Amino acid sequence: MTEREYRVYTLRNFASIPQIEKNLTKEEIFDIEVVGNILPFKVNNYVINQLIDWTNYRQDPIYRLTFPQKAMLQKRHYQEMAEALVSDAGRAELKLIANKIRMELNPHPAGQLEHNLPDLNGEKLQGIQHKYRETMLFFPPQGQTCHAYCTFCFRWPQFTGMNELKFAMRDTEKAIEYIRSNPEITDILFTGGDPLVMRTRILKKYLNAFIEADLPNLRTIRLGTKALGYWPQRFVSDSDADELLQLFRSVEDAGIHLAFMAHFNHPAELRTSIVQKAISRILETGAVIRSQSPVMRHINDSADVWAEMWQLQVESGCIPYYMFLARDTGAQEYFALPLEQAWEIYREAYQQVSGIARTVRGPSMSAGPGKVQVLGVTDVGDESVFVLQFIQGRNPDWVAKPFFAKYDPEAIWLDELKPAFGKERFFFESEFPLSWEDSWDDSEMRPELGVAESN
Ligand SMILES: *Cc1c(COP(=O)(O)O)cnc(C)c1O
Which residues have CB under 6 Å of ligand 1? Predict the structure, then answer.
């Protein structure tokens, strides 16, 4: 059966999903309600009918990827929300409790982010981010949701209404001018949410604006999207699917590379016939599909799973691009793996595939100072160390210089690491102290450190 009509399920109506009615215990349904009142929850008929194996749903990676789990919350948070639900608290009270708990989950909420947005002739621009020299992120307001929500998503606060459409960019003209006045920008990355939830005619307006602006420095338009994994119908049977593919073609025809950045978390997402068809149709337009995913406990914490995923990707014509580490927000404790373990998974998977699939880089942390790759654990003299390098840095000069941290088998994030060999600080800390890590994330741009100063 192929689902052609998109049907969405949320906290409001998930209990009517036939597989839920048939399989879940009352306790499990209640758990979803408790967690789903705090973390965002949205799933659709394709994910339910074609991606999840309901005979073994408790262990199913796609089920855990989309359905809230009790263990995603700390016990006291779970308890507080559960008691409120049992005592029939009103909507307003539930929301108050939910927001209080969310604030304890490192949401990087509004307010913290007000400063240090990119600047155009003295005006702060909302809805774009420019952290790495070559690439500007663009957040179209109609693309700030997804076809289903990933339970690990670091953008979860925006889906709970806490800082909805915070970054939305309505004024394409300003973004164009920003690219024009920053000639080192070669790439614009449409992101969200998922820009491919937009109807084709809306996406077309944005893309055409950038194409028609005839920006000499703009070489690549990237679309960051989960639509292949969660709704491949977008490229096959949706009423504007053909028009969408035509739009991709027109980008290539304008001499701009269309880089389709696909988010796949598990090989199950690559096994349906409709996703294979969608991939072929996208590749026919001249676009190139690159793939990325975080490595996460309970979902894909196995070298075999990664090796199979990369292998399926290259066979379908997708280029493995990044393996990320789970971000330090939301349910990170449920998903996070120690750096060493993530590197072991990467290494064992990488060893299983031929060079064709070894285009992938990771595991990598998108941290305050940049994207930091864990190259591995080794001994130098009689000290055990992590070898690390920046794949991207706020200062481009940091990139591809190996540096060392003390070995720590439990560390899961950059700010837990200490420099090796008795050094006080990492080399980049004269410009970006790691003590900033907690309050500065990818959503921000420090003009005194980034490209605004380095050109
Ligand atoms: C990952 C990322 C990019 C793109 O980096 P590439 O290495 O070029 O893929 C751009 N901006 C931000 C903020 C990012 O996190």
Answer: 129, 131-132, 135, 137, 189, 366, 371, 391-392, 442
